[in-house]
Amino acid sequence: MGKRSAFARVGRDLYETPPEAIRPLLGWLEPQTAFIEPCYGQGALAAFLEASGHYCVSRYDLDRGWDARKDPYHPVIPGEIFITNPPWSRDVLHDIIVNLSNQAPSWLLIDSDWMHTQQSIPYLPRLRKIVSVGRVRWIPGSPYDGKDNCCWYLFDRPSNQETVFIGRRSDRPG
């Protein structure tokens, strides 16, 4: 699934989010966070978050007739946020960043290299927080982790606010 892999990609980057990718985010969510999942897929991310005490108020996906790149999510109630594992293909990802973060704070699981690329520059004024995850085993039953590290990125409307980076830690909940 990565840029250094001979494996065929899953269509639309529809990889289920394994628990080890979600756990680092838990310590940074408010208790009983109400969230919207705009790239729902099979629902693994939402199910894990709900089992951890959070509340998925709505679920969307292309298969459900909703496009996270352009569709509005009405009404997003104050306090609700987006949490999703979007496609990592840049032509899709960047539109999702803008669309979601214009509507509410948005946690997106993305490869770590993204923040180091020239193409990330227009989106950095939206970036508030980065939580390191590391490598994840995306293919169930595989003996191998993916070759790309990933992070949770918190985006919001553009501002001059500095981005906070949280490295891998074992003393945080989750």
Concise summary:
The chain is an alpha/beta fold and 174 residues long. It is 16% helix and 22% strand.
Description:
There is one protein chain. The chain is of the alpha/beta class and 174 residues long. The chain has a single domain (11-166), classed as 3-Layer(aba) Sandwich (Rossmann fold), CATH 3.40.50. The protein contains 3 helices and 7 strands; from the N terminus they run αβαββαββββ. The chain has helices at 19-26, 44-51, 90-101, and strands at residues 34-37, 55-59, 81-84, 106-111, 127-135, 149-155, 164-166. Strands 2-1-3-4-6-5-7 form a 7-stranded mixed β-sheet, sandwiched between helices. α3 links the parallel β3 and β4 (106-111). The longest helix has 12 residues, at 90-101. It is globular. The mean pLDDT is 88.
Outline the fold blueprint.
Blueprint lengths: L18 H8 L7 E4 L6 H8 L3 E5 L21 E4 L5 H12 L4 E6 L15 E9 L13 E7 L8 E3 L8
For the terminal residues, how far apart are their CA atoms?
Answer: 26 Å
Question: What is the CATH domain class?
Answer: Alpha Beta
- Quote the CATH topology: Rossmann fold
CATH architecture, please? Answer: 3-Layer(aba) Sandwich
The domain tally reads 1
Q: For this structure, what is the CATH homologous superfamily? A: Vaccinia Virus protein VP39
Order of helices and strands: HEHEEHEEEE
Largest sheet, in brief, is: 7 strands, mixed
Which sequence of strands runs across the widest sheet? 2-1-3-4-6-5-7
Q: Which parts are unreliable, with pLDDT below 50 for 5 consecutive residues or more?
A: none
What helical percentage do the residues reach?
10-25%
The portion of residues forming beta strands comes to: 15-25%
Briefly note the structural class of the backbone: alpha/beta
How large is the count of helical segments? 3
Shape: globular
Mean pLDDT: 88
- The total strand number stands at 7
- How large, in whole angstroms, is the Cα Rg? 15 Å
